[in-house]
């Protein structure tokens, strides 16, 4: 197996080379993909349309294309429109990441035990889905099959809303006339909640633009929840209901404890109506050992031909 990487930025290519992230780093997209069996697109979401247009002429017949974008509706639509019918597209979204970008912050254990959302296109073959399932398992993640609309709504709740809340908190506090003094008191709690605001601005912009409707729905739900808290605390001339406030925090504490303990729902899901996908072992064999197996079969055929020729020569002797 040979892993080839490319990036539009020279600094990223150089950083990947220093970290030995790839067997080979190419400066041109066509050179990186023209012999590929599996192609992984890891760019901001809105860059994928142009990327798919640019790569389409170089795609080998039968290759599998996947991505790791945080939203899927637009990405699958572009894949259907722009990629040739001779390739398969399987949407992917590993639910893991960090706010520090670049190859210098790479972590080989990043995906370990994390859900890896898989959203195959309507035209994707069983083989293609099996190969990307294998890829997810190979990096230690747990494949998680999910519908397109479900994915974009659910990740808006647990991924996109959190970094908007983080960003809004920084905006709310930093715009205060007293920010220079407030900032001196910002300790671990504030830093933990606002960590996501340090993430890549382009990535966050593209996520919000490409998944606006589900995100707005969850913003509205969050505002309603926050307003309930406000009503509890702003009780006019009466002091807040101490039991109601206690219940509010206790319910949230218990809900989070169940989530952390894994008691909410199992992460992995299967598609009942779909045929069985290849196992990790068989799919790994198809992906990485197919070439060796084909060469072995050709050698066996050559040996049989050679044996047949020797037998024929013996029979022809006087």
Automatic annotation (TrEMBL):
PROSITE patterns associated with the record: PDH_ADH
InterPro entries with a match to the protein in the record: 6-PGluconate_DH-like_C_sf (IPR008927), NAD(P)-bd_dom_sf (IPR036291), PDH_C (IPR046825), PDH_N (IPR046826), Preph/Arog_dehydrog (IPR050812), Prephen_DH (IPR003099)
GO BP annotations, alphabetical order: tyrosine biosynthetic process
Keyword terms of this UniProt record: Oxidoreductase
Domain Prephenate/arogenate dehydrogenase as annotated: residue spans: 1-267
Domain of life: Eukaryota
Pfam families: PDH_C, PDH_N
Molecular function in Gene Ontology: NAD+ binding; prephenate dehydrogenase (NAD+) activity; prephenate dehydrogenase (NADP+) activity
Entries under SUPFAM superfamilies matching the protein: 6-phosphogluconate dehydrogenase C-terminal domain-like, NAD(P)-binding Rossmann-fold domains
PANTHER family named in the record: PREPHENATE DEHYDROGENASE, PREPHENATE DEHYDROGENASE [NADP(+)]
Protein name: Prephenate dehydrogenase
Species whose genome carries this gene: Geodia barretti (Barrett's horny sponge)
